[in-house]
Structure formats: C-alpha cells, structure tokens
Specification:
Length: 327
C-alpha cells in the first residue's frame, strides 16, 4: 500500500509539472483519457478473462449522453459526466447480461454485434448530429467554481479523474471481489464448485468496466468539446485491445504505457518519419504519417510474436527470473 501511495504521489508531481515544460495539455489529456479507457478494458480481459470487442459502445454512449446533457439540458460538467457514466453502466448491464450467457469467441462476437447496433443508432439518431457528431459542447464551470474553458484547469481535472479511475481499478482487483474474479479466470469450474455465482460476478465486472470506460468517454468529450462517431466505431474497440496487448494484459501500468505508445504513434509518427527522411535521405519515410495503421499493425505483430506478455509483462518476467537466479 505504501508503494501504491508513493506511486500516486510521484505521478501527481510529474503530471502537475508537465505543462510547465511546454507540453501541450490537450495532448496529455488525450493520452490520459485513452489510458483510462484501456484500464477499464484491462479490468475485464486481464482479470476476468473476457475479451470484449464492443467497448467502444460504452466510450461513445457516455460521450454522446454527457455531451447532450450539458449542451441541450444545461447540466453542469460534473453532472454531465455522472450522467454519461450512468448511461454507459446501464448499457453495460444490458450487453453484459446477454453476452455472459456465452463464453470464448461467442461472447466476443455478441459484444461486437451489440456495439455495432449502438453505432448505427448514433449514426441515425437526430440528437447525435449524424456523421458530423455532437459539436460545440460548452465546458462550463466545475462545481460552479472552476472555469474549464481554461485548458490548464481542465487538465488538472482530467488528471484527478484519471487517478480516481485508476485507483478504482486497482482497488477492485485487490479486493475480495477481485480475488474471486481472478479465480474465475484461472479455473471457472472450480469457482462454481466453491459456491460462487460466476455469472453474477462476471456481470458486475462487465458493468464496472463499462462504467469506467464511460468515465473516459465523458472526460474525452469535455476535452475535445465534441462527441463523434469515431468514439463508437469498431475500430476504437480494436485500438483499446491493441493498447492493452502492447502494454501488458493483467498489469496495472501496462495499459497506460500502451495508450501512450498508440497515441504517440497516431500524433507524432509523421514528424518522426520526416526526421528519418532528412537523416537518411530516403524520402519514403516522409510519408510515414499517412501509414499509421500499417505501423500500428506491424507493432502489434511484433508484440504478439516477441512480447507475448506485453512490454510491462515481459519486463516483470525478466526481473523476476533474474531475482530468482540471484537467490
């Protein structure tokens, strides 16, 4: 617990100092939103063993719900975020209630199918703005005091939200409830034989994961003052899988590192390619920014083949093996 508190304090100090070094706050907030989204997904895959291809539905539904509530109904930012979480959790209860009746690839395909239904609803619903999305959502004042139109104020709010969401994931896994989830992942028949209602635990974990994904979606909506169809597309569900696998499934910091790598690739690969082109004289690298999907696909293949446990998982395995040898 002391190590956890120390880690939180260190993260808070580093996060608070980043804007002072000239790093664009919007960029950091984007990383934190995706990192929280990946943590929510990892809670389900890494500790329950359920692979969902429909988590974009929760991110998108919370973004649209909170954006509509703030822009049209006049909700305050904090109430809009809570409303988005409620909608995402409710949707998670409905989709999870249907999906957990099956396992393996059938569970995965049900989540994907339900998420696509949600996507087409947002595409055709009149209040979502269709292909244009929900634009121009006012940020307002947090608790009527803090002006969120100031990017720095919003930044510190996003840092706080991320820390709360991350702590919820950590506390869940390290609670008796989390130990049951691990038991279900490791040996579901044995968990059933011990008297646990496995379906109920799976559903609770699914709803919690959906709620945290909704928190990420509502926060992302405030950062970019909009909710778009890309938040609910199946590609977003694929990206969060990629983030988690790159960082390390079943680790706490892994999804955060995976989110950082993916967002950096999406935003900086073009600059990196031009730098390589200027250094090597090979002009093909200057068009690397137009091939982000190909680059991420190659990284995914390399991780699957060489880093089966992800970056954090492989590092942890290396240091554990080294420590055991030294003893």
């Amino acid at each position: 617990m002391n190590r956890q508190i120390l880690g939180y304090a260190l993260f808070a100090i580093v996060a608070a100092s980043l804007p002072a070094f000239g790093i664009y706050p919007i960029f950091i907030m984007k990383i934190l939103c995706y990192a929280l989204f990946a943590c929510a997904f990892n809670l389900l895959l890494g500790y329950v063993g359920l692979l969902s291809f429909g988590h974009a539905a929760f991110l998108g539904s919370a973004a649209y719900a909170s954006g509509h509530a703030i822009k049209v109904w006049g909700f305050s930012p904090e109430m809009g975020i809570l409303y988005g979480i409620l909608i995402a959790a409710t949707l998670g209860f409905v989709i999870g209630g249907l999906a957990i009746r099956r396992s393996g690839i059938y569970f995965t395909m049900i989540t994907l199918a339900m998420a696509q239904m949600v996507f087409f609803f947002f595409l055709q619903a009149p209040f979502t703005g269709g292909e244009d999305g929900l634009q121009g959502v006012p940020r307002g004042h947090l608790f009527g005091l803090l002006d969120l139109k100031n990017d720095l104020n919003l930044y510190y709010m996003v840092v706080g939200i991320f820390m709360i969401g991350y702590f919820i994931c950590w506390r869940t896994v390290n609670s008796p409830f989390g130990q049951v989830l691990k038991a279900i992942k490791e040996n579901e028949p044995r968990a059933i034989s011990l008297g646990y209602d496995v379906d109920k635990y799976k559903l609770l974990a699914f709803v919690l994961s959906a709620a945290i994904a909704g928190l990420a979606g509502s926060t992302k909506m405030l950062v970019f003052v909009s909710a778009t169809l890309s938040d609910a597309m199946w590609q977003m569900s694929g990206i969060v899988v990629l983030m988690t696998l790159i960082g390390g499934v079943g680790t706490f910091i892994g999804p955060v590192i995976g989110a950082f790598i993916v967002v950096m690739l999406e935003n900086k690969i073009g600059d990196f390619g031009r730098m390589i082109a200027d250094t090597t004289g090979v002009q093909w690298f200057s068009s690397l920014g137009e091939s982000v999907t190909i680059v991420m696909g190659l990284i995914f293949i390399i991780c699957v083949m060489a880093f089966r446990k992800g970056i954090v998982g492989e590092l942890a395995h290396f240091f554990t093996a080294r420590q055991s040898k030294s003893q």
